[in-house]
Amino acid sequence: MAAGRARTVLLTGCNRGIGLELVKQLLATPRPPAWVFATCRDPEGPRAQELRDLASKHPNLVLVKLDISNPSAITDAAKIVEGKLDGLGLNLLINNAAIYTPTASLATADAEDMINVYKTNTVGPMLMAQAFLPLLKKAAKESTEKGLSCSRAAIINISSVMGSIQKTPESFLKPVISYRCSKAALNMLTQCQALTYKAAGILCVALHPGWVKTDMGTQEAELTVDTSVRGLLSVLPILSEKHSGTLLNWEGKAIPWSRGNQNCRDLIRTWRSSAGVSFQPEQLFILPSWLDPASCFLGKPPQSAVGGTMEVEALPAWHRFNPNT
């Protein structure tokens, strides 16, 4: 499915791997986007030959030179895209470009490596959203659709399960410290973007493509590029407001990226034990799904919590669970 029928799409990091395959599969859909902007550092270089071949066959594919670690290059790219769109907005921005230092352990990672990885993997997507925000807002405003969707206006940040704090023990066989930290920061950026841009009608979601057989993922990986991208493109059309700010995998399954919910349970079990309180199954605690209550309630638990229900108002996302589980 053509990215939720988005008319205009821009992708970063398109000369190889997941980015290149996203471009190929978008163009191959029965109803491809009117415009696909594929960016990479050197569209005229040898590594972009496949992109140039595609562009020669698809007049709706535009190659744009862009190094997302360079703020001025991002500004220049936004001007080029705006001119090509000629009054149209941008429906879908996919921040795919990323770099990775496979040997970065806690013993070997240094400031230069950490800064370089952050500039591409975290700062780059932030600056891309800033630069293309006017075009995204234009698309959202002019759309006849209600609610949030990829066909109206969306920012999709290609992230990783390695940016999940809760999942770290399961994947720490490869420490890759700078990459992990940058993707954890990207997940937070996605949440912040979701809360900030919602009023403008822009959906913001982070997607984990899986462990993919690319230069970065190596041939040891579990998924082919084709399988991963088919999964990602099947997820895009189903994304809505309820997914905004979340991290999902290529199958559309949610990935917890903080330890907040588990900490909620642990804290409330402690309250229940210390207070000698027994709860009925129907007595639910109501907490924001992204918030660790330990950061809000210190010392003695609130009386309302001991009574069975704690309500935290004026917060955007909620999570319910049985305190006895």
TrEMBL record:
CDD domains listed in its UniProt record: carb_red_sniffer_like_SDR_c
Organism, scientific name: Patagioenas fasciata monilis
GO cellular component, one term: cytoplasm
GO MF term list: oxidoreductase activity
Signal sequence residues: none
Name of the molecule in the record: C-factor
SUPFAM superfamilies: NAD(P)-binding Rossmann-fold domains
InterPro entries attached to this UniProt entry: Fungal_SecMetab_SDRs (IPR051468), NAD(P)-bd_dom_sf (IPR036291), SDR_fam (IPR002347)
Homology family: Belongs to the short-chain dehydrogenases/reductases (SDR) family.
